[in-house]
Every structure is written in structure tokens, then in C-alpha cells.
Amino acid sequence: MLAKTESVALIGTEAHLVEVEVDVGTGVPRFTIVGLPSSTVREADQRVRSALLSSDESWPGQRITANLAPGALRKEGTHFDLPLAFGVLAANRRIPPEPLADWVIVGELALDGSVRPVRGTLAAAISCREAGRKGIICPAANAAEVGLVEGIEVVPVETLRQCIDWAKGRWTPPPIEHATCSAAPPCPDMTEVRGQGTAKRALEIAAAGGHNLLMCGPPGSGKTMLASRLPGIMPVMTLEESLAVTRIYSVAGILGEQTGLVTNRPFRAPHHHVTLAGLIGGGTGLPRPGEVSLAHPRAHHHTRRARIAACEPPSTRDCLRPGLGPTLPVWTGSGTPANDSSRNAAGP
């Protein structure tokens, strides 16, 4: 029997809907996953099998084929565990397939049948709403961020047994507790700085006009101290900006459990030996957000800019062009680097 469920594939900060087709038929007992899966997705067969057995469900002793469509889109992440389990149960006639229609499913399964949190659930919820789906089934630990998206239903689950009972109409999910805490602590206050009038004036101009800023001076003169206080004099983020920031943090996996909307402007200060992939994003397989993405729409601070000048063109130079958005690169260093494209300079 053929059963279909839906999940998402994370590409950068975007979530694309993926159709999960599971067929249980005659043949040598084997679980095969096709559709350009990564190694983490291929390992789902062992997690799904153990989770089903731990949930007092039988494992079909037949050939199981799971197809993740579209096949040209690379699939990565452990969030495919739960939709694959739903597909196996529906194809084996253990649950009715009708309740799964128009639902997006994400979640990682533990061997004991519990559902673990995954990254990118907010992006999945936004994609679910844009595609006109009914709702999303997600881990209970991710329910707070999914609840930020209006217009869809949310089913937070803690175990695979709850998922099975929900599909059979035996269990009703509890209401979502909407968290409003921020994922970032409040930034230091500019009023704590004594003196440094010229540098503070330059920071105010950069914050008001969205300009880049270069501060040069010897170590200990207060460059990093002043730069870390820049988010405190910037305007409060709008709801759209907060949702964009929360979405990026969710995809990057640094949002945290039971964390709602990010309302503060966190300050990013990567090491001066950061790699190019760590700075602008990338990595093996599918790209991950880098420090530039994590700094949107906030202040981005680098120390010893001369150290990274050799690896910046042309990627990071685009981030310094005026008028590209509210991200404010703030460079500090003990010497004036060559080929600098910053528009303002202040020496504390």
C-alpha cells in the first residue's frame, strides 16, 4: 500500500515542501530511502524502526521504499524521522491515511519513541502557511516558535504514541503556550561609557543613517566596548524584523527550546580568524547561515580587520555597500587596513 505525507527541506533560511511517499510491498524485507537523501536521512530507518517497536507497534516484514520528492532537491536533517514513521504506519494500515492530508510533519525520533526538537520549525511553519496547508505536526519543544505563525493549526507531540493516538482520534493536543522571551540578552548601555564623545557621535550617525563604521586605535582604547553598545541606540525591531531574525536563528539551530520571538538586537562578534564560510555562510552539503546572516538586522563587529582583508573580496565587500539593509558592519583594529570600503571612521 502507498501512503503520502509531507515535510520540508531546509535550503539556507528557506523551507521547501517535500512529499514523503512510503510504499510497503512484497519482496525482501528492507527499508530503502531514495530522493537524494543525506547520510542523516538514510540513518532514519534504524531510528524509525526502534521508535515504532518501542511504541508497541509492529514493524512490517516486507520491502519498504520511501521516496522524498522532488528528487532533485537534496534532503538533509533528522526532521524526516517523524513523517517517515507516519508513512510506514499508514502504508501498513496501522493508522488511517486521511488525517495526514494537508499536514506538514517534522520531528526527530529517539529509540524509545520520544520526539526530539529539530531546527528550522519556524521556517517550516511559514512554508506550511504559504502553501495553504492545514497545519503542522512538530515536537512539543518547538511549539513556541511555531506558534508565532498565525493561520495554521499546530499539533505539538512528545512521543510517537501521541502521534498515533492523534491520527486515530484518541488524543487531543494541549493548547500552545505562547512564549515571548528573547533569545538574546539585553545589550550594554551606551550611558555607561564616560567620555569618548567623538566615537559616540560616530556611532549615533552610523545607527541613524545605516552607515558602516571603522574605529582605529591601540588595544584597550574602548573600540570593542563602544561597538558592543551600538544595538542599544538602534530602533526597536519591528514585528517583521523579529520574525526574520527568529527564522534565521531557528534554521541555524541556536534559538533554543521553548523560545519565542527574538525581540532584542543581539550583537555578533566573531573571532578575527573566522573562516570565509563561517563569516558569510556555507559549509558542506547544504549552506548554513553565517555570521553576516546572524547579524541581520543588527550590528556586526569584527576585530583586527586587516587579518581578514585577504579573504573578504568579493563576498564580504557586498555587505559593506551602502543601502543594502539595516545590518551595520563595525570594524575595529589597531591599524588602518588597505582597500577598506567603510564610509565613516572614528578614532576613540
What features would you describe in this structure?
The chain has helices spanning 39-42, 44-54, 81-91, 121-130, 143-146, 160-167, 197-209, 223-227, 239-252, 276-280, 291-294, 305-308, 315-319; strands spanning 2-11, 14-25, 30-34, 63-69, 103-105, 108-109, 115-116, 135-139, 153-157, 213-216, 299-303, 328-333, 345-346. The strands form 4 sheets. A 4-stranded mixed beta sheet has the order 1-2-4-3. Strand 8, helix 5 (143-146) and strand 9 form a beta-alpha-beta unit. The protein is α/β, with parallel strands linked by helices and 348 residues long. The chain has 2 domains: 2-167, Ribosomal Protein S5, domain 2, CATH 3.30.230; 190-346, P-loop containing nucleotide triphosphate hydrolases (Rossmann fold). It has 13 helices and 13 strands. Helices cover 28% and strands 20% of the residues. It is elongated, with a radius of gyration of 24 Å. Helix 2 packs across helix 3. The longest helix is centred in the last third of the chain and has 14 residues, at 239-252.
List key phrases describing it.
13 helices, four-stranded mixed sheet, 2 domains, Rossmann fold, alpha/beta, Ribosomal Protein S5, domain 2, about 350 residues, 13 strands
CATH architecture classification name of the largest domain? 2-Layer Sandwich
Class from secondary-structure proportions: alpha/beta
Rounded to an integer, what's the Rg over CA atoms?
24 Å
Q: Return the string of H and E elements.
A: EEEHHEHEEEHEHEHHEHHHHEHHEE
What is the helix content? Answer: 25-40%
Domain module tally: 2
CATH class of the largest domain: Alpha Beta
Strand order of the largest sheet: 1-2-4-3
Might you state the CATH topology name of the largest domain?
Ribosomal Protein S5, domain 2
In terms of DSSP E residues, the strand content is: 15-25%
The number of helical segments is: 13
Overall form: elongated
Poorly predicted runs of 5 or more residues: 304-311, 319-327, 333-348
Mean pLDDT: 80
Secondary structure: number of strands: 13
Terminal CA distance reads 71 Å
Largest sheet: 4 strands, mixed
